[in-house]
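Researcher: Here's a chain I'd like modeled. Treat it as a single chain, no partners, no ligands.
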Amino acid sequence: IFNERFKVEENPLSKAIYDVLPHGECGACGFPGCFPCAEAIAENRALLDACTAGGQETAKKVKEVLENFKKENNKQFSNF
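Model: Modeled as a single isolated chain. Structure tokens:
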């Protein structure tokens, strides 16, 4: 009951960004792990290339995730 009542919904954009990060949990980005880094990117508190361990290849993947997310959200709200 406690878990259901106090469940925190995960930001789908953060999760999508996290999925393309290398999951090294190295902290080289300045965040305590990959998911906090993904959250910071999703919330525009970190740059697309914040994951230094992943390099430019990861930055490209993050950019693609953001572009796809933007396209999907524009479709969602185009009826209004």
